[in-house]
Amino acid sequence: xxxxxxxxxxxxxxxxxxxxxxxxxxxxxxxxKKSFVHFSETFLGMxxxxxxxxxxxxLSYFFVSPELVKRHLGRDSGAKGYLWATLGAIxxxxxxxxxxxxxxxxxxxxxxxxxxxxxxxxxNVQPTFLPVIAYYFGTLFTIVFAFYxxxxxxxxxxxxxxxxxx
Length: 166
Description:
By secondary structure, the chain is an all-alpha fold.
């Protein structure tokens, strides 16, 4: 058991998932097969997106230095960091599984937790969705909604920053 405890979390998750699939296979083989086929199709559909993510991460190692991240998103970034995190989140659209690895790398390079929180909250203000929201709920609602998300993302970032002792 000690050797299992030393395994990385991802390997443990993979083994647990495989064990669960095996157990379900013995209980209901047809369901397990359908589930595995669905998983495989989803995974294969994600591969091109993941390739783009890894390519962007690869490029970031060449063009985004830790000094650049620290200057714009680090401890001494101040209001400028909050502005960059807000604008970056609004400008960049994508599913979380694409953005989380990139945010993790930025965090490793010196991005503050407070700015990660601001970024993650402001992902919900997407220029591509704003017209759709306005269509269904009205322009006033859309403006107030986006404003509140931005304001409360800043508040959330400040709270996270204090809790994480930045």
